């Protein structure tokens, strides 16, 4: 009851922060501060037995209840055009970048704790690498929510979003791989086995998410569930959650599985849903994600007072871990951005200002804290408390400074970043990609109940996610003006036809007015 009341107040705080446009405190930061206040009150007014039940951050609850809705929603509601256009940089940052962050963090932690003796307990090299893997798991929920509100550059958003989601999965796999070395000595054969195991976990999880989503698509295609919207939504939820549980049961990565399950469902399952379910699933998963995110950050705030002794906090480790996460993040972002820019067209190069934002956006949060809960090492308590403090620092301080930094670096926001050449690059990529063409002609029609390709319009063979999103937001938010807008479009088309400017404009009118051709993609930003 205390937790539910705290989450409710957190929502109200978030509402007030949005209405007042207070840019120095995010919703996640507000939930954390409220959690700390409630935790402090509980700490000194309630007995220890009840204290443990209310304030302990439960790892099983996090991984089985709170995390799946967040990850699935991020895949289901993502802007796929920008995501797949930036897939190369996302994979580079998520895989190579996370490994770089882990190695740099691990080496520096080992140097600080072992050689300089500035921490209360000396870490082994394995302890240091495990800690490096833990704090390499970024959790930029705060930054992404700010990006969505301010409508920052699409490439910047896609890179931060894609890296953060896949980064969590990579960090978990690295963490599990390193944990396996606690009882097994390092050797060249074991290292190669760890690499193969890493690939097995990732691609196995990806395959499970893909197959489960495609099975769901076929079920909806060959049944009349579109006549029962409630059943459609139940099927979506059960299939999504089953992909997560199946991967975890097979000791794979549920995060990778449910992420790609969400992406695949958005592409193949979503068009087979009834219009009511299309709208409702987008909103429902967004609400569930927001609820669980606030619950997670409230839990983190409560957890600060859940430790019985101040001696469990290692002041030296905390002090030097803060600059270490900045150094490891810089070793990841700036060199890899340089490599990426060698292969990107001028309009899509990652600018220095964007690189600074990406470096700054590497917040630590619930994922890192959850991984540190059950490390089988004598250094576990020091790692746990340090990770918690790092999470509080990055969310409250770095998250609160994100908007001022965006303004200082003059990052384009609103509609400023919608440059025609960048839109054309994405469209050309989608139209020229062999898999996109194969998918449009054969794969999507096979898995979709009623597939109507917009390729009938030669000028626009592939629907643009963000343009569709913009049109739908206009229809949803300005429904009173909609008849007038449509009338103006029809009048404009008649005038155009009268002036002899060709039939292409008439096709554009049909695309806008034909509701069956709208993909409804990314309706929720």
Automatic annotation (TrEMBL):
Tell me, what is an example of a GO biological process annotation in this record? regulation of intracellular pH
Q: What is its main location?
A: membrane
Q: What is the annotated localization of this protein?
A: Membrane
Residue ranges spanning the membrane: these are 28-46, 53-71, 83-112, 124-147, 198-220, 229-246, 252-273, 285-307, 313-335, 356-375, 387-409
Biased segments, Acidic residues type: 457-468, 516-525
Residues covered by region (Disordered): 453-525
Lineage: superkingdom = Eukaryota
User: Which residues lie in Polar residues bias regions?
Assistant: 470-481
Q: Where is the Cation/H+ exchanger transmembrane domain?
A: 9-407
Question: What keywords are assigned to this protein?
Answer: Antiport, Ion transport, Membrane, Sodium, Sodium transport, Transmembrane, Transmembrane helix, Transport
Cleaved signal peptide residues? none
Known NCBIfam families for this protein?
b_cpa1
Family membership noted in the UniProt record: Belongs to the monovalent cation:proton antiporter 1 (CPA1) transporter (TC 2.A.36) family.
| Name this protein carries in UniProt | Sodium/hydrogen exchanger
Its source organism is Arcella intermedia
The record lists the lineage as: Eukaryota, Amoebozoa, Tubulinea, Elardia, Arcellinida
């Amino acid at each position: 009851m205390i937790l539910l009341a705290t989450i409710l107040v957190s929502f109200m705080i978030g509402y007030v922060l949005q209405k007042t446009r207070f840019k120095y405190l995010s919703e996640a930061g507000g939930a954390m501060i409220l959690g700390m206040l409630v935790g402090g009150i509980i700490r000194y007014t309630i007995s220890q037995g009840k204290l443990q039940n209310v304030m302990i951050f439960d790892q099983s609850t996090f991984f089985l209840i709170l995390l799946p809705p967040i990850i699935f929603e991020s895949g289901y509601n993502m802007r796929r055009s920008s995501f797949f256009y930036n897939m190369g940089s996302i994979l580079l940052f998520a895989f190579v970048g996370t490994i770089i962050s882990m190695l740099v963090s691990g080496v520096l932690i080992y140097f600080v704790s072992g050689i300089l003796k500035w921490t209360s307990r000396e870490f082994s090299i394995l302890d240091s690498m495990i800690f490096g893997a833990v704090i390499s798991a970024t959790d930029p929920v705060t930054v992404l929510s700010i990006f969505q509100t301010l409508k920052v550059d699409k490439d910047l958003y896609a890179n931060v979003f894609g890296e953060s989601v896949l980064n969590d999965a990579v960090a978990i796999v690295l963490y599990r791989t390193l944990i396996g070395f606690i009882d097994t000595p390092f050797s060249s054969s074991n290292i190669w086995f760890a690499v193969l195991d890493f690939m097995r976990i990732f691609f196995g999880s990806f395959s499970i998410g893909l197959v489960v989503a495609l099975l769901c698509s076929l079920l909806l295609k060959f049944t009349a569930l579109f006549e029962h919207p409630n059943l459609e939504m139940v099927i979506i939820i059960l299939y999504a959650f089953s992909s997560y549980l199946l991967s975890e049961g097979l000791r794979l990565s549920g995060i990778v599985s449910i992420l790609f399950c969400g992406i695949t469902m958005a592409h193949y399952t979503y068009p087979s849903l009834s219009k009511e379910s299309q709208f409702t699933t987008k909103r429902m998963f967004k609400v569930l994600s927001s609820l669980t995110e606030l619950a997670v950050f409230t839990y983190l705030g409560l957890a600060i007072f859940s430790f019985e002794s101040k001696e469990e906090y290692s002041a030296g480790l905390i002090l030097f871990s803060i600059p270490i996460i900045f150094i490891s993040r810089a070793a990841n972002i700036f060199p890899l951005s340089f490599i990426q820019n060698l292969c990107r067209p001028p309009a899509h190069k990652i600018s220095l200002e964007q690189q600074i934002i990406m470096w700054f956006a590497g917040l630590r949060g619930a994922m890192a804290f959850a991984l540190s809960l059950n490390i089988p090492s004598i250094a576990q308590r020091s790692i746990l408390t340090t990770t918690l403090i790092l999470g509080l620092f990055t969310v409250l301080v770095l998250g609160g400074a994100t908007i001022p930094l965006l303004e200082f670096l003059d990052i384009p926001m609103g509609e400023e970043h919608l440059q025609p050449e960048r839109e054309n690059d994405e469209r050309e990529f989608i139209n020229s990609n062999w898999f996109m063409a194969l998918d449009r002609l054969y794969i999507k029609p096979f898995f979709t109940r009623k597939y109507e390709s917009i390729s009938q319009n030669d000028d626009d063979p592939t629907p643009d996610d963000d343009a569709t999103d913009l049109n739908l937001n206009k229809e949803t938010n300005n429904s009173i003006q909609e008849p007038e807008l449509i009338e103006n479009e029809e009048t404009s088309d008649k005038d155009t036809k009268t002036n002899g400017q060709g039939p292409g404009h008439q096709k554009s009118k049909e695309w806008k007015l034909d509701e069956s051709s709208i993909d409804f993609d990314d309706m929720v930003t």
